Amino acid sequence: MADKITVGYTHLSGCTGCTVALADNYGGLLTLLDKYVDLKYMPTLADARHIQKVDVSFVEGSVCINDKLAVEEIKETREKSAVVVALGGCACYGNITRFGRGGQQNQPQHEAYLPIGDLIKVDVYIPGCAPTPQMIRNVAVMAYLLLKGTKEQKDLATKFLTPLMKATETTSACFCDLMVKVINQSLCMGCGSCAAACPVNAITMEYGKPQGERDLCIKCGACYNQCPRAWYSFDVVDNYEAINEAIMAALQ
Amino acid sequence: MGAELGKYKSCVSARTTDKEILKFSQDGGIVTSLFGFALDTGIIDGAIVAANKEFYEKNPSKCILDNSNFEMIEPWRPIPAVVNTKAELLAAAGTKYNISPNVALLKEATRAFGLDKIGIVGTPCQMQAVRKAQLYPIGFRDVGASIALAVGIFCMENFPYQGILQLVEDHAAMKLDAVKKMEIGKGKFWVYGKRGQVVSLPLKVTHKYEQPGCHVCLDYVANLGDISTGSVGSPDGWSTVFVRSKIGDSVWAKAMAAGVFETQPIEKVKPGLELVTKLANEKITKNKKTLEGRATFGVGKALRNPYI
Ligand SMILES: Cc1cc2nc3c(=O)[nH]c(=O)nc-3n(C[C@H](O)[C@H](O)[C@H](O)COP(=O)(O)OP(=O)(O)OC[C@H]3O[C@@H](n4cnc5c(N)ncnc54)[C@H](O)[C@@H]3O)c2cc1C
Ligand code: SF4
Ligand code: SF4
Ligand code: SF4
Q1: Would the pLDDT of B260 be above 90?
Q2: Is the pTM of this model over 0.90?
Q3: Is the same domain home to B136 and B266?
Q4: A85, β-bridge pairs
Q5: Cβ contact B213–A133 (<8 Å)
Q6: Kind of pairing between the strands at A124-126 and A81-87
Q7: Strand pairing partners for A212?
Q8: Number of domains making up chain B
Q9: Under a CB-based contact definition with an 8 Å cutoff, are residues A135 and A167 in contact?
Q10: CB of B118 closer than 8 Å to CB of B109
Q11: Domains of chain A, first to last
Q12: pLDDT, position A248
């Protein structure tokens, strides 16, 4: 397929877990690269590292605002990309890097880390620590359909991506989101998705409602974004079977 | 409306042919028999169900407890569990009218419990959670493709545990550990005691104890299950079954071929789909009103609407 989209990958203050999750698509990643994606730059998986003009850039990690180079890189990423995707908890919400206080070797003055949405406009979030290979795959296929698909495919991709675009309105996350935006709003129905989604098992279900061990919470945003009562699109989820099939077919 | 019953390929009234299952099951034993059959034939290698304290006592490694001590677990409090045998399925059969967060085990089922092909039963909202987890697997790495059979159960509303406690012990004046079965049907909430006593409460007594999160729920018949089932629409002891997805179609056909169920055409039974449709519409209409009310709840301030 000649009609590939160009993609870049900017790596800031992230642990490479997001990169590994992307690579963990194994054959699926090769199909993506083969058919749909022209990977222009990426520190680990491509030869070129320097930021170039692309259709979509993925950003892993938060921005250390005490690091001039990182600040320049995120700005340049924004200027040169039509679509910026924040990949993983750190880029979306700061996540574990929120706990940074500086003092580490060999850059002890690097103490303040911000999610990229505090410095640039971000178009799409893929939350999760680490984000899952399947979530990255689904968003990648949908992003491709949005840019290159037929009209119906574009409509579907828009619907699929809308909640992940709206998610960019917030740049911090915590277990407390479940309290504040779900339970306090009288929306929780006790499914347990949040407890399953939490990467650090900070959530237990007590009498059918989530209870957070708030000292364990690394502020990744997975629980809230997984919650069906945080956001839910009937247009998309009612068609889960067809969409799953379309994604799998795209990766054949 | 028209969409109130969701998409389905076929709908029948059905009952298990296994007499032993019927002794423990809530209605026609559809859920327990389907999982039993799927375990026997390798369609699934375990199922997430709602067990209880007695089950946990015998099989502590099959459940993940919340922060309660064992002594603190009350009768009729559901404990999500991963089961692998018919005996374990039977121990978890029957409806518990309070929240069993089955989806909380969905990831761990593929980890500590080692399942590659998971069965899961749940209310319509839990089926929504399962499908969101497949399409948007934000915190469900390597889980989506392992979901081999999701069985949805119809649901008008659920109750917090303490609501059931108050209904049974205060209103029906029975001890929870003396209760054999609870049921909602024919406009009443029924409590059956182990000694044979039966108490029924008018549904209007129960409404105030409902889980408030249920009042924005727009699905009655588990539209997103591979197969979904409930009592409404079918005669006593029988179940109404919707076969919905390709997976559901294939499993149902195999189970029928193996003689797991006896069926009657849904058109031939009373009260039939007419009642299911009516109740589904009532639930959806009422809860859409709640959502509208939330939009103008305060003075120029709305409550959040989760639906995009
Ligand atoms: C809260 C609630 C409300 C319901 N409301 C309706 C209704 O309005 N109309 C209607 O027709 N049917 C309703 N049902 C479904 C009905 O009560 C039966 O569960 C269903 O018909 C299955 O019966 P069965 O004999 O096939 O299942 P069984 O073979 O008895 O198996 C039932 C399965 O469901 C699991 N289970 C039990 N309680 C829960 C729970 N709280 N959450 C998740 N899983 C659970 C059990 O572990 C078991 O595996 C409701 C069920 C629940 C849990
Ligand atoms: S509770 Fe868990 S899932 Fe939620 S934000 Fe904290 S670490 Fe992430
Ligand atoms: S995922 Fe949302 S609805 Fe489900 S238990 Fe957690 S907070 Fe409640
Ligand atoms: S009424 Fe809806 S939200 Fe409440 S338990 Fe049933 S399916 Fe879940």
Answers
A1: yes
A2: yes
A3: yes
A4: A58, A124
A5: no
A6: parallel
A7: A203
A8: 2
A9: no
A10: yes
A11: 5-171+240-250 (3.40.50.700), 176-226 (3.30.70.20)
A12: 92
The count of residues in chain B is: 308
Which residue from B26, B156, B229 has its CB within 8 A of the most atoms of ligand 1, so it is best to mutate?
B26
d(CA B142, CA B107): 8
Compare all CA atoms of chain B with the CA of A131 and give the residue at the minimum distance.
B138
Q: Residue B188 sits in which domain range?
A: 159-209
The CA distance from B289 to B225, in Å, is 25
B231 with B278, same domain: the answer is: yes
Q: Does B67 touch chain A (CB under 8 A)?
A: yes
Whether the per-residue pLDDT at B1 is higher than 60: the answer is no
Which ligand has the minimum distance to the alpha carbon of residue A223? 2
What is d(CA A146, CA B2) in angstroms, rounded to the nearest whole number? Answer: 30
User: Ligand 2 within 6 A of A178 CB?
Assistant: no
Would you state the pLDDT for residue B182? 98
Q: Which residue of B has its CA nearest to A142?
A: B135
For residues B100 and B278, what is the distance between their CA atoms, to the nearest angstrom?
27
Has residue B279 been placed in a domain?
yes
Domain contains B301: no
Establish if B99 touches chain A: CB-CB under 8 angstroms.
yes
| Contact of B188 with B200, CB cutoff 8 Å | yes
CA A243/CA A217 separation, integer angstroms: 32
Nearest-CA neighbor of B137 among B110, B155, B158, B115?
B110
Residues B179 and B130 in one domain: no
Identify which of B161, B224, B308 has the shortest CB distance to residue A207: B161
Determine, yes or no, domain membership for B163. Answer: yes
Give chain B's largest Cα–Cα span: 60
Predicted confidence (pLDDT) per residue in A131-177, tens digit: 999 999 999 999 999 999 999 999 999 999 999 999 999 999 999 99
Closest CB to A222 among B135, B138, B215: B138
Chain A CB within 8 Å of residue B1 CB: no
**Whether residue B289 sits in one domain with residue B143:** yes
CA distance A141 to B95: 40
Chosen from A158, A183, A191, A214 to mutate, greatest number of chain B CBs within 10 A: A191
Q: How does residue A2 score in pLDDT terms, banded at 50, 70 and 90?
A: low
Tokens of residue A193, six digits:
């998705």
> What is the token pair recorded at A162?
């809308």
Q: Is pLDDT larger for residue B68 or for residue A137?
A: A137
**Ligand 1 centroid, distance to B233 Cα (angstroms):** 15
